[in-house]
């Protein structure tokens, strides 16, 4: 009976192992599908940008070609019904639109281009941290019949629709793009800090982090007694790169309230985490 019972337990454990692996594979597949969808949307936005650029270049080339073929005598004899004045007007309009677009980039700080015969606008939002350019996100905004968000590759955890609701997208697109850019740059900054922690601090174990990089759990080692200390950084303000709360846990319940570790808490709240860890090591508080 004991042998049969043992076999039953082993069989059940094997079943649970297979089930766990199956769930893990499903989770990986779903994550991969989301990643591919984001890539497809980014490529669609880029495709629209390229189509608009090619169309603009072709039109301008035709206009210039038509104008170059005209002799000075023909230009003097042009009347109001001829095609040349229309071509010149189109060229002037094209130049005017280019100037407006350049002004928009300079004032707004965003790379934008019209698409779909002026019915849409593709905006590229660059992210950077400490002078290093990181990901570029693309967003298509449909202008007609009303302003609304089209295809994009903005991460799903960025509150894109909530920002569009809070800020009147119809009348204040600049404020909307500013708010979106702030969220994206803060996320990129937190993500880059996490990357630098893994690269620069091999003695620090990253125990947990989420997709938004708004929670970071580190395992530190206290220098003097080699005691393990759990450090939790909570980035409640998703528009910032610094945590709003830092919490320590360890076997010595008195240690987090000691003057030295209170000082460490302030350092972690006021300094990017990869730099804060360097400071803590120099002070001799962590290994």
What this model shows, in words?
It is a single chain. About 3% of the residues have low confidence. This protein has seven helices and eight strands; from the N terminus they run H-H-H-E-E-E-E-H-H-E-E-E-E-H-H. The radius of gyration is 29 Å and the shape is elongated. 54% of the residues lie in helices and 19% in strands. With 287 residues, it is of the alpha+beta class. Helix 6 packs antiparallel against helix 7. The strands form two sheets. A four-stranded antiparallel sheet has the order 1-2-3-4. The protein folds into two domains: 144 residues, Copper Amine Oxidase, Chain A, domain 1 (2-Layer Sandwich); 82 residues.
In short:
This protein is α+β, with helices and mostly antiparallel strands and 287 residues long. The chain is built from 7 helices and 8 strands.
């Amino acid at each position: 009976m004991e042998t049969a019972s043992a076999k039953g337990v082993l069989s059940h454990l094997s079943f649970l192992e297979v089930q766990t692996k199956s769930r893990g594979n499903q989770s990986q597949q779903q994550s991969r599908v989301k990643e591919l969808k984001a890539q497809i949307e980014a490529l669609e936005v880029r495709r629209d940008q390229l189509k608009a650029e090619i169309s603009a270049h072709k039109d301008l080339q035709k206009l210039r070609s038509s104008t170059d073929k005209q002799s000075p005598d023909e230009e003097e004899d042009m009347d109001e019904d001829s095609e040349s004045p229309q071509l010149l007007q189109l060229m002037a309009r094209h130049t005017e639109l280019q100037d407006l677009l350049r002004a928009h980039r300079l004032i707004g700080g965003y790379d934008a281009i019209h698409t779909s015969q002026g019915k849409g606008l593709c905006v590229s939002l660059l992210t950077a941290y400490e002078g290093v350019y990181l990901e570029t996100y693309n967003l298509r905004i449909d202008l007609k019949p009303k302003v609304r968000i089209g295809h994009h590759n903005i991460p799903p955890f960025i509150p894109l629709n909530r920002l569009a609701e809070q800020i009147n997208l119809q009348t204040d697109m600049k404020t909307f793009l500013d708010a979106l850019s702030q969220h994206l740059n803060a996320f990129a900054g937190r993500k880059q800090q996490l990357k630098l922690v893994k690269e620069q601090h091999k003695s620090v174990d990253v125990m947990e982090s989420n997709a938004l990089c708004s929670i970071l759990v580190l395992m530190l080692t206290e220098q003097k007694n080699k005691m393990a200390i759990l450090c939790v950084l909570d980035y409640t303000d998703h528009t910032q790169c610094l945590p709003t709360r830092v919490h320590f846990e360890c076997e010595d319940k008195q240690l987090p309230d000691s003057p030295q570790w209170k000082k460490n808490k302030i350092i972690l709240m006021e300094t990017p985490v990869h730099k804060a860890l360097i400071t803590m090591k120099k002070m001799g508080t962590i290994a």
